[in-house]
């Protein structure tokens, strides 16, 4: 089983001297292909910092971050931006769709930015919309969709082009119980199909969809619940 | 749990025999609360004595069936229209354990909370897995079992939220002036 995301002894300090805030203090963390990992913790525990660092949106003060075996910290800004577009998909609480673009255009955008021809990008986008169950909404604008539908578009955008690492920050935050569950079902399905998923949430009911739950307190992983990947258990020599 | 009322309400549907009652109960609740067949027969005997059920003859395979009497129907109607009593909270081992842990000196409350949270989360993950597998066949017994599962999910979630809340309160208490034992307990949480 291959590690899609690996954090090794990651520290993140905001500010300096007296005012320094240590958001992460030596976090090691791995998400394998086919695995959904939930990160739970109260506000201020460092869970959002963990996610932005995993996605290359923020840099660790210390430690290593690998995505599909590549050390993200050592990349140039341009290389990192390219990795974000091709390997990593984000799902945010606020959907973050471009209001002036239709659903299919929103989903196609990261493909086009990556130089894929627009016809191909649109075909990829349509396939992603089919996967999340809303191909009929392709030509709608975000404002004409419900919150649940917008989040489906955001998930389609996060997975288009077979990206293997999906990072989700409270993706069900603004949705009702049943719609939220549908979103988790989609994330889960994507991971079952081979992606690695990291889900940041403070809701236990949502974290329970994950294979593993990591508890974060004051920038430190205090515990994990759930089974280790079977292959790992079988490696007797594993440290 | 009221086995008596569960059996009576199943008989409201149609006359059934003992083993059938057990199977029907378990299919609707997903076997969450296993019922042994001896318990079913003892309950039926008691219900017959109290005039709530009566023999309804044998089916073609020779099973002795039971049906509701007039007062049996009334009992079922009363059960469904009366709320479950919440005035006397059921004994909650976890709440009692935590109340004692924060007052008895030398208990590592932080570890206690985290171990429990981890265990409750594992249970919640199991329920969620069952939910994912639960069929969408639209059958009435699937819906019943789905609702029972939701109840377990919500209860486990409430327990985890309560544990988070306890932890936050103890951490806050540790930074304020509080009676010695609670302060000591809270100190352990923050460590």
Descriptive account of the structure:
The complex is a heterodimer of chains A (239) and B (191). With 239 residues, chain A is α/β, with parallel strands linked by helices. In chain A, the strands form two sheets. In chain A, strands 6-7-8-3-9-10 form a six-stranded mixed sheet. A four-stranded antiparallel sheet of chain A has the order 2-1-4-5, with helices on one face. Chain A starts with a strand and ends in a 5-residue tail after the last helix. Chain A has two domains: 1-87 and 164-239, P-loop containing nucleotide triphosphate hydrolases (Rossmann fold, 3-Layer(aba) Sandwich); 98-163. Mean pLDDT of chain A is 86; it is low at 227-239. In chain A, 34% of the residues lie in helices and 27% in strands. In chain A, strand 7 (165-169), helix 6 (177-192) and strand 8 form a beta-alpha-beta unit. In chain A, helix 3 (103-113) runs parallel beside helix 5 (147-159) and helix 4 packs across helix 5 (147-159). Chain A has helices at 47-54, 77-86, 103-113, 118-131, 147-159, 177-192, 204-207, 230-234, and strands at residues 3-14, 21-32, 36-40, 62-67, 70-71, 88-91, 165-169, 196-201, 212-217, 220-225. Chain B is mainly alpha-helical and 191 residues long. Chain B has two domains: 3-81, Orthogonal Bundle (Arc Repressor Mutant, subunit A); 93-190. Chain B is 67% helix and 7% strand. Chain B has eight helices and three strands; from the N terminus they run αβααββααααα. Chain B has helices at residues 3-13, 18-29, 37-49, 70-81, 93-101, 109-133, 140-174, 180-190, and strands spanning 16-17, 53-58, 64-68. Chain B has a three-stranded antiparallel sheet. The radius of gyration of chain B is 23 Å and the shape is elongated. The two termini of chain B are 41 Å apart. The model of chain B has no long low-confidence stretch (mean pLDDT 86). The chains are: A alpha/beta (239), B mainly alpha (191). The A-B interface holds A 42, 185, 188, 203-205, 207-210, 213, 215, 222-226 and B 114, 117-122, 124-125, 127-128, 132, 153-154, 156-157, 160-161, 164, 168. Chain A: One of its GO terms (molecular function) is ATP hydrolysis activity. Chain A: It holds the Pfam family ABC_tran. Chain A: Residues 5-238 form the ABC transporter domain. Chain A: InterPro entries: AAA+_ATPase, ABC_transporter-like_ATP-bd, ABC_transporter-like_CS, ABC_transpr_LolD-like, MacB-like_ATP-bd, P-loop_NTPase. Chain A: Keywords: ATP-binding, Nucleotide-binding, Transport.
